[in-house]
Specification:
single chain, disordered C terminus, alpha+beta
């Protein structure tokens, strides 16, 4: 199979990305979440944040025209969740004092552990650095924690996300890391 192409997501990708997100959540969440937790996360949290698509900071990796991985970064204040989680407009972050957000990484279970999440992370880190950010932050689901630890993130806080009107709680982790100077473009590093 040829190497997947990494490109910015467009609005027309959203239905296929929503299907990929559902496959990823249900397939890779086994062993980390109960079926009730997975169903509640898929119903109430997971999904595409269309603001990231509009901003050009959400990416998709295609293989033979089919999305196999997606993820992005944001210069906005929303920390996690798709459109269904939003109730107020996102404010822009200050790169001098705030961390860029790593958002919504999902890989097709049939393509897991082949480096696609890492490729997305490297791309998003470089893009956030180019936009002037020196820190990254994310809210991780339990299946994502190993990937983020491997990329230098540290757990800052563990918490339970109340779902299904309080009937279900899903463990999550707030994670952060600095962007190393090596990840920044030369012009930024020289500042």
């Amino acid at each position: 199979m040829p190497s997947p192409a990494l490109r910015a997501a467009i609005a027309a990708d959203i239905p296929a990305l929503e299907a990929l997100i559902t496959r990823s959540a249900t397939g890779l969440g086994t062993g980390f979440y109960t079926p009730a937790q997975t169903a509640a996360l898929a119903r109430e949290v997971f999904g595409v944040d269309s603001q990231l698509v509009i901003d050009g900071t959400y990416f998709v990796m295609d293989a033979d025209g089919t999305p196999i991985a997606c993820g992005g970064w944001s210069r906005r204040s929303t920390t996690f969740g798709g459109d269904k989680m939003k109730s107020v407009p996102d404010r822009l972050l200050d790169p001098a004092t705030e961390a860029a957000k790593i958002r919504a990484f999902f890989v097709d279970p049939a393509m897991a552990r082949r480096g696609y999440g890492s490729a997305l992370m490297q791309h998003c880190t470089a893009a956030a650095a180019a936009a002037g950010f020196t820190q990254l932050e994310l809210v991780a689901t339990m299946p994502g924690v190993p990937l983020y630890l491997a990329h230098g993130f540290a757990v800052v806080e563990r918490f339970e996300l109340a779902l299904a009107q309080g009937a279900v709680a899903a463990p999550m982790a707030l994670m952060r890391r600095a962007i190393e100077v090596a990840a920044m473009p030369q012009a930024l590093a020289a500042r």
